[in-house]
Amino acid sequence: MRVFLQVWRQKNGQSKGRFERYEASEVSPDMSLLEMLDVVNEGLVQKNEAPIAFDHDCREGICGMCGLVINGVPHGSEGGATTCQLHMRKFQDGDEIWIEPFRAKAFPVLRDCVVDRTALDRIIQAGGFISVRTGSAPDANQILVPKENADLAMDAAACIGCGACVAACPNASAMLFTAAKISHLGLLPQGQPERHSRALAMVKQMDAEGFGACTNHEECEAVCPKEVSIDFIARMNRDFAKAAATFRPPKARGGGD
Amino acid sequence: MATAVSFTASSIGKKYVMAVSGIALFGFTMAHMAGNLQVFLGRERFNGYAATLHAMPAVLWVFRGVMILAVVAHIVTSVQLALRNRAARPQGYAKKQSLATTYAARTMVVSGPILFFYIVYHLLHFTFNTLHPNYEVTDLYSNVVASFRQVPISVSYIIANACFGFHVFHGAYSLFQSLGVNHPRYNGALRSLAMAIAVLVTTGFIAVPVGVLAGLTK
Ligand code: HEM
Ligand code: SF4
Ligand code: FES
Predict the structure, then answer these.
(1) Predicted confidence (pLDDT) at residue B1 exceeds the cutoff of 60
(2) A235 to chain B: closest CA residue
(3) Sign for the pseudo-dihedral over CA of A129, A135, A137, A142
(4) What's the pLDDT tens digit per position in A59-94?
């Protein structure tokens, strides 16, 4: 099959970008979209032109590195799948495919369709962890976890940090991502000691990165490759409000330091 | 105090402010609608109701104070959030496809300001009587009927209240999520509740101009 591409090309963060039209012929329907771009890039390199830059790593839908906006939908309209899992058989011969980077102030373009998503890493660094002594693995089932909580925590932990939720949100809000990260630890016993400080710190970082606020369009949930539910946003709001209402600055009288 | 300040400065805290002030405005709206519908019970009843309210200036002013607070909090916060959201995406998409959002959700920042101008007009119209100096303060019934017999006034009220319906539909649905009231067992019911509230409020308010035009009042 043969498709036409409109791809966002931008030399670096300072330069102005524009769409560039390419033709991709002899495309196999079994190729993934990224493999099709690989072929286009080989052609560009042979012509001594700069290849189209795009992010990818595992190419099996688990690392969260890939992320393109394809015909106006982050990760394309496969549903419940990452960009690397989108195949050319989803398109028709002769289709025009628009390929753009994720757009958000907090995700500056580095080159072409590659954006800097370290803002999400900084949200994790602010509180997406538990402080434990790492020794040998504890006995399984030593700490009991209700099955429902374990399931919910897994659903939240499925988030691969791709940032598609931000890209899809009309407000470029990172609340689905942050909610998933706050919830997957907050639902487990090991996450309880830092539950409140985590919610406060991660939301504070999320705001500091310049993401927008949720207005319940639910676009994030619709594009999330891991189908993380917006129910987690309500859970985050609850945790954050409770944490803000009961926060007291650390001031230990006993115990010493 | 440090945490209270940082709560309302945070994006989630602002959503709580929107939701709580929205609930206050909504509570007022329901009471106001119940009052308005008494216009169909006749001149005596309606003017009597208005007189009862005005006979309790203390209550009235506490009530108005809460409303002014709620309106100011709601509007100031909505402007802050809208600016923040706009700044979060300086460059848009060439192609953008929506998968889930609704008309009501997309137009909140339009229906809100329309409501603001409508409320200002409405207060000047019936509360302060500045638009119609010949209105009798003690005979509200005649003022209402005379106003709504003018088609342009009725039409503007009907349009504003249709906007209001859309605003309240998305608002009532959102506020549960903002406050963290969300449970798979009740989410469907909450959405239906939001729809029921929006339909109820809109028909309740539109009933008055429509009823006057239809000649149900004397
Ligand atoms: C005076 C003019 C008004 C303006 C400018 C305004 C503006 C807004 C805006 C911009 C939002 C946020 C939209 C979003 O989150 O998507 C909002 C939400 C809301 N508004 Fe209004 N509004 C006004 C009047 C009202 C009135 C009269 C009511 C109640 C009857 C109301 C009830 C709500 C509710 C319940 C929400 C949802 C809060 C949430 O998301 O948790 N608003 N308003
Ligand atoms: S919540 Fe979904 S869309 Fe958002 S970063 Fe995680 S996996 Fe990606
Ligand atoms: S490249 Fe790893 S998820 Fe797509």
Answers:
(1) no
(2) B180
(3) negative
(4) 999 999 999 999 999 999 888 999 999 999 999 999
DSSP per-residue letters across B42-106: -HHHHHHHHHHHHT-HHHHHHHHHHHHHHHHHHHHHHHHHHHHHHHT-SS--SS---SS--HHHH
Per the structure, the count of domains in chain B is: 1
Instruction: Tell whether A235 is within 8 A of chain B (Cβ).
Output: yes
CA B22 – ligand 1 centroid, Å: 6
The boundaries of the domain holding residue B199 are 2-88+103-213
Is there a contact between A106 and B88 if contact means CB atoms under 8 Å apart? yes
Residue A81 Cα to ligand 3 midpoint, Å, equals: 10
| A226 in the same domain as A150 | yes
Q: Residue B11 is nearest to which of A8, A207, A230, comparing CB atoms?
A: A207
Q: How far is A47 from chain B (nearest CA, A)?
A: 28
Mean pLDDT of chain B: 91
- How does pLDDT run across A27-42, given as a tens digit for each residue? 999 999 999 999 999 9
Chain A residues with CB inside 8 Å of B174's CB?
215-216
Q: Is the pLDDT of residue B160 over 90?
A: yes
pTM attached to this predicted model: 0.93
Judgement on whether residues A104 and A30 belong to the same structural domain of the protein = yes
CA of A126 to the centre of ligand 3 (A): 25
CATH classification at residue A199: 1.10.1060.10
Q: Which residues of A158-174 are buried (b: 16+ CB within 10 A; e: fewer)?
A: ebbbbbbbbbbbbbbbb
Instruction: Say yes or no: CB of residue B20 within 6 Å of ligand 1.
Output: no
Prediction ipTM score = 0.92
